[in-house]
Design goal:
265 residues; alpha+beta; paralog of FGE (formylglycine-generating enzyme); 9 strands; 15% strand; globular
C-alpha cells in the first residue's frame, strides 16, 4: 500500500474539518493499490458479435496510484464563468454574449472541449485526472463492484441518469463514501489520457498515464442521458475527440497530494 505524504496523513488523522480549511472544495483521495477494470461479465459476453470495444476494460488488474486531491464536484457554470471573465477564454456556445445563462450557475458546465477543461484546470493550479486516478477515486472501498455503493441496482437517489432535460445541479444526489459528488451520471468527465482500446493489457502497474498518442480522449462516469447499467458502471470506458463539445460532457480537476496549496477560486 502506498502511504500518503505526511500532510495527507495529518489531514486523515484530524478529519474532514481540517481538510476543508486546507483545500476548500476538494477531497483527499489516499493513494494505494486497487483492482482497475471490470470483474464481472455482461449478458451475451461470449457471443462473437459482442462488440470488442465493450471489452476494453479488461483485464482487471491490480495497479497503484499516488494520493491526490480531487474536486468534490464537477466544475460548475459559475466557476467556469470566473475563468472566462479572468482570462478571456471562449465561453460555451450556449452562453449568449459570453455570459452564463441565469439558472445555470450550479449546473456542471458542459459543451467544453478537452482543451477547454485542461486550460481551466491549469488556471486553477490543478490538472485533469488520469483515467486510473478517476476510477480509484470513484471506487473508494468498492473494489470490484459495479458502482461506488456496491452492486445493487442504481436509483434516482444515487445519480442523474436516463433523463431528457440535461444535468442537475452538482451534489444533488448522495455522495460517495469518499465525499465526492456525481461520479456516476450527471455528465461524463474528461480525463487526461488518450484512449487506447488495448491499453489495460500492457499499461504500467504504477500511475499509468495512458498511451502516448491517440485519436480520442478518455471520458468516464456516464451522463444524465445514459441508461443503466453499462455506461454508468465504474469500469466503463468511453471516449470523445479532443475538440468535441457535447451537452453530456463536463469535467473536474485534481491536484497531486504533494503539490503546493493553491488558493481556491
Amino acid at each position: 500500500m502506498v502511504k500518503p505524504p505526511g500532510a495527507a496523513l495529518l489531514l486523515l488523522a484530524c478529519g474532514v474539518g481540517l481538510f476543508a480549511a486546507e483545500r476548500p472544495g476538494m477531497v483527499l483521495i489516499p493513494g494505494g493499490e486497487f483492482i482497475r477494470g471490470r470483474t464481472f461479465k455482461w449478458p451475451d459476453y461470449e457471443v462473437k458479435w459482442y462488440p470488442n470495444p465493450a471489452k476494453d476494460d479488461e483485464p482487471a488488474r491490480k495497479i497503484t496510484v499516488d494520493s491526490i486531491y480531487m474536486d468534490e464536484a464537477e466544475v460548475t457554470g459559475q466557476r467556469y464563468a470566473g475563468f472566462v471573465q479572468a482570462t478571456g477564454h471562449r465561453a460555451p456556445y450556449y452562453w449568449r454574449d459570453g455570459k452564463i445563462p441565469s439558472g445555470k450557475e450550479k449546473l456542471p458546465v458542459v459543451n467544453v472541449s478537452w482543451d477547454d477543461a485542461e486550460q481551466f484546470c491549469t488556471w486553477d493550479a490543478k490538472r485533469l485526472p488520469t483515467e486510473a486516478e478517476w476510477e480509484h477515486a470513484a471506487r473508494g472501498t468498492q473494489e470490484g463492484s459495479m458502482y461506488s455503493w456496491g452492486d445493487r441496482k442504481i436509483t434516482d437517489a444515487d445519480a442523474v441518469f436516463n433523463k431528457l432535460d440535461g444535468p442537475a445541479p452538482v451534489c444533488s444526489k448522495t455522495k460517495t463514501a469518499s465525499g465526492l459528488c456525481d461520479m456516476t451520471g450527471n455528465v461524463w468527465e474528461w480525463c487526461s489520457d488518450w484512449y487506447g482500446q488495448h491499453y489495460y493489457q500492457d499499461s504500467p502497474d504504477r500511475n499509468p498515464q495512458g498511451p502516448d498518442k491517440g485519436q480520442y480522449r478518455v471520458i468516464r462516469g456516464g451522463s444524465w442521458f445514459d441508461v443503466p447499467p453499462l455506461f454508468l458502471t465504474l469500469s466503463y470506458r468511453s471516449w470523445a475527440r479532443q475538440r468535441e463539445r457535447s451537452p453530456t460532457i463536463g469535467f473536474r480537476c485534481v491536484q497531486s497530494a504533494g503539490a503546493a496549496n493553491a488558493s481556491s477560486r
